[in-house]
Structures are given as structure tokens and as C-alpha cells.
Amino acid sequence: MDAIKVQNLSVGYEDRTVAEQISFSLNMGDYLCIIGENGSGKSTLLKTLLQLQEPLGGEIIYGSDIRRNELGYLPQQTDIQRDFPASVREVVLSGCLSRCRWRPFYNRDEKARAADNLARMGMGDFSDRCYRELSGGQQQRVLLARALCAADQVLFLDEPVTGLDPSATEDMYEIIRQLNAEGLTIIMVSHDVAASLEDASHVLYMGERVFFGTKDEYLNREKAQALSGNGGDDV
Amino acid sequence: MIDQLIMYLQHSFVVYALIVGVLIALCSALLGVTLVLKRFSFIGDGLSHVAFGAMAIASVLKMTNQMILTLPITILCAVLLLRTGQKTRVKGDAALAMISVGALAFGYMILNVFSTSSNLSGDVCSTLFGSTSILTLTKLDVAMCIILSLIVILLFVLMYHKIFAVTFDEDFARAGGMRTDMYNLILAVVIAVVIVVAMSLVGALLISALVVFPALSAMRLFRSFRGVTICSAIISVACALLGIIISILAGTPVGSTIVAVDAAAFGLCCAYDRISGGSRI
User: Fold this and answer.
1) CATH number of the domain at A1-41+56-66+154-163+183-235, out of 2.60.40.1180, 3.90.1300.10, 3.40.50.300, 3.40.50.720?
2) From the DSSP assignment, how many helices (H) and strands (E) are in chain B?
3) Is B32 or B198 the better-scoring residue by pLDDT?
4) What's the complex ipTM?
């Protein structure tokens, strides 16, 4: 069952192409890790997949049973959030907003959904705490709970372990592994290559030449390059 | 002193001033929280200058209801400013400085050239600082103010959760399919409305104080969005009431008295935050 299929996609901003000729396809339940140098267009690609940005060319086709408001997103934190007065409950509930459509207030189901997801992230006791006073790892869990409120099927993660200490990082990967095991399709941007490759089923390498394949294919390619000693982009 | 106050309250202009003052304080405080958090507090300042320029044109044209002209011009500028502010922060900043100073200079110039008033500097001063205008409100002014304020408050309540989402994390909201552009546009229009209405209370130069102070005070006391919003509204209304009453009893200018009370409240909240150091929701 196709989750997402990307054909010959170019991403970038109005007058500047950041990356092009990106093609890949994922099935439901796959775990894609997007890696590459800084500035290679990883985050831009993620935003384009989420339709936050217009693609400059090519096509993105979502599986027929995925609706736009079922894409969960864990963005990188912004400056605004660092000193934003908000309780954990308020942040998580905002993940249910796309379910409200024109209804101005949350209903009981949505409140329960938010509480469930918070508990699922092991943060059930924190719902009355202030978001900005939590540790980095706890904040990421809260944002993940928010993403889960929106997502039933696909989860997009943008550098989820940036700024976390080693044990919080390990926790985060464990949570993502768990979610993937429960059937969610994961698409993660990361520069922590070694750790993120452990769990991934597929790899998209962004560079001069874009590579897409299963994890094994990627590792074999790496090995072949190491042996031939040129380290270049020849496949 | 109480007797004196009761005596004043029997005059309709004092009651009008209190009604208008409370409504404006409420609206500006509700929006202020979002503006401050979105780093848009400067927009209130810029728009008030624009409103001053528009008002100068209206008074030269001898329009009886100046709002008919000032409201659309200010709304237009608010929309333009929020647009540029989103794409690149620096450009938006410079655009704002240009528009606001330009409008101020232009307004003063045409008032000088075309005005037939014998007391020009008095007129300008009261437009900028709202010295006495709130005590000369007509029934029509009050009715307009009540209607516009109720619309603003209703919109805010209905859009409360959406406003939170757009303010906290615009990208996430958009990824969920929310039309954030539309909400930003509505926000811009509402800000412009509040500023034009508020101009009659505190004058063009002091409006941003009504927007910024209560929100910042409330953020010292509360740590949740709802707590901050409600507290900001309460602080703002209380300060406006106190300010108007003081200004009537002591004969000080209304606008600057309200702002002074707001500033004092901010000082108290800071002190309380420093002393208690706790975290309340």
C-alpha cells in the first residue's frame, strides 16, 4: 500500500533551487531517514512534502487513504516558543485543531485524544505544567504528542534530537521506534547519521546526487565507495 | 472624594468615557497578548501613526465622522505590514519605520497647510495624546465604539484556539491544513480596528502602551496562554477604569494617566514575579 510517492521533485525558494531530481516511494509503515550535508535541502524537502512550500517541479502523490489533516509534524523549535506562556495541555490540544474545522472549541473526544497521546509519551502528569519550563527532551515529547493528535498514519520529524542530551536522545529514538512498530510511517530528517540509520528501513541521501534505497542498499553503497577509495558520488 | 466621583458619574460624558475606556482596554489587551508573542508589538505603534495621518486628511476634508476614512486606510496598512513582516523580518521592520514616520510627517504637514482651526497645536496635541477628546464623545462615537468592540471580542472568543495555534507554531498549524494566511489577515484587520477606536481614548502616540503593557504584566504572573489572556484583560480594564477616574478627579490628561497606571501595574507585576519566583499556570 503506497503511503507517498515522489517523482522528480525539485524543492527550493522562489528563485533558488536547493535540491532537484528527488524520487522515492514509501509504503505504509516504512521508516525513512533523510540525511545529507547542511544546506542540502533536507528541511526544505520536508516542508515541501508537508505542503508548507510549493514544489518547484515534479510531483508528490499521497496514498489514496491519507488525508491532509492526518499528517503529523514535529518541527524544529522556534525562538517564539522558547518564552511562550503555554501549558502543556494547551500545546498538545492544538494538535487536534485540524479536526475541529469550523467548530470554535474542542469537544470531549479531542480532549481525551490529547490526554491519551500525552500519556503515551509518558508525560501524563505534566499537563498543567508550563511548556517553556520543561527540559528539552520533555518539550520534544510534548510536541510529539501534539503531532500524534494530528497524525494517524504519517509522522514527519525535523531533526528531532537537536539540542538534546545523550540520554534524552536515546529516549527520543526509542519512542520513534515504538511508534513505527505500532504502524506509523516515519519520515525523519536527521544529521545524526549513525544513530538514525539503526532504525530506518529506507534512506534518502541528499547531495549532489540524490540517493534513495533501503538501508542495506545504502550501506552497501557506502562500503563500495570506501573500497574504491574515491568517496565520490558514483553509485 | 467619593461624593465628587458620584457627582461626576451623573454626567453622561463621564459614563460614555468609562464605557468606551473599558471596551477599548479589553480589546487591546486581548490582541496585545498575540501581538507581543508574535513579536509584532511594534505594528501597533506604526499603525497608530498611520491612523494619525488618515485623521489629518479627514479633518482637513471636514468630515463629520472621521472613522469612515481612518478605518479603511489603517486596515489597508495593517494588511500590507503583516504581509511584509512575514516574509523577511528586517524588511518588514524598515517598511514599518518608513510608513509610520511618513504618515506622521504627512499628517502634520497637511494639518498645518490646510487647517482653518485657530488652535492648531492644541488640535494636533489632542490627536496625538488624546488629551480631552474622550470627554467630548458623541452618542454616535460611543455607539460605533461599542459595536466595533463587541465584534472584536466575539471574533477573539470564536477564534481563540486558532489564534493560539497560529501564534505558537504557524508551520505546524499550516501542516495540519489550517488557513493561517486567512487568520493572519483577520488579525491584521482587527488590530487596525482596535487602533482606530482606541485613538479616541489615548491618542495616536500612546496606543501601543494599551497593547503592550497589560500583556507583558500578565506574562509576569501567569504561565499559560489562557491565564495570560484573561489576566491581561483584567489588568487592562482595571487600569483603564482607575486611570479615567484619577484623570477626572485630578484633572490630568486621560490618555497619559491610563498609560501611567498601566506602567505602574507592570512594575508591580515584575516585583511580584521577582519576589515569588514561582510558576503559576
Assistant:
1) 3.40.50.300
2) 13, 0
3) B32
4) 0.87
